[in-house]
Amino acid sequence: MIYKTYVKRLIDFILSLVGLIVLSPVFILLIICIKLDSKGPILFKQRRIGKDKSEFYILKFRTMKIDTPKDTPTHLLKNPESYITRVGKFMRKTSLDELPQILNILKGEMSIIGPRPCLWNQYDLIAERDKYGANDIYPGLTGWAQINGRDELPIDIKANLDGVYVERMSFIFDVKCFFGTIISILKHDGVVEGGTGELDKGKTSTPNATTSEGKDTKGII
């Protein structure tokens, strides 16, 4: 209980502050590449579901063109590859587009490890997570589900894995998720561009049943 209530938040703050300083050269390089690659803002913000189903705006580096339909999950776009910028394709494969969420962690809206925050309109996923108490904790930059399937997971399995994280949440388990994420990124595990639920292709995807994170071009810088 002490870890979940106090220690985890302290670790999040310290590591995100250190990460922001250490990764500042990477931030600068990505900002330059984004501006040179396509027109539009550097960052975008998007409505997501946070702790206790409160809403907040997640921050990401822009990876898609400014004419991309807003608040639409990638897999629901017709020919999603056509909307992704050249730099964006690289950032999405390496998850570098997620780096601005360090600011969300510093603000206390997210944790380093936890369930990935749902889009505000992913009602089925939100409802499934309610069964496991996964909406009662801070969402994370990465989590147990992200190293066990990522975009390939149908919502029921994803929510179940988020529930496993809730039950096993501890310093040791967070460390396991952290290093598991690094391995997954290096191997590009579970990345299905423009698709979701690849492990369950027999099911029909709907806007409310997607596990794929939607993209938005609402820029802020």
Describe this structure in words.
With 221 residues, the protein is α+β, with helices and mostly antiparallel strands. It has one domain. It is 40% helix and 11% strand. It contains 7 helices and 6 strands; from the N terminus they run ααβββααβαβααβ. The chain has helices at residues 2-22, 24-37, 86-94, 101-106, 123-130, 155-168, 171-187; strands at residues 43-49, 55-61, 72-73, 111-113, 140-142, 214-215. A two-stranded antiparallel sheet has the order 1-2. The protein has a two-stranded antiparallel sheet with strand order 3-6. The protein has a two-stranded parallel sheet with strand order 4-5. 40% of the residues are buried. Mean pLDDT is 84; it is low at 193-219.
Instruction: Work out the oligomeric state of the chains in this entry.
Output: single chain
Main pleated-sheet profile: 2 strands, antiparallel
Structural class: alpha+beta
| Share of helical residues | 40-55%
Number of strands: 6
- How far do the termini sit from each other? 39 Å
Q: Helix segment count? A: 7
| Total domain units | 1
What average pLDDT do the residues reach? 84
Spans with pLDDT under 50 lasting ≥5 residues? Answer: 193-219
Basic shape: globular
How big is the Rg?
A: 16 Å
**How big a fraction of the residues is strand?**
5-15%
Q: Give me the strand/helix succession.
A: HHEEEHHEHEHHE
The main sheet orders its strands as: 1-2
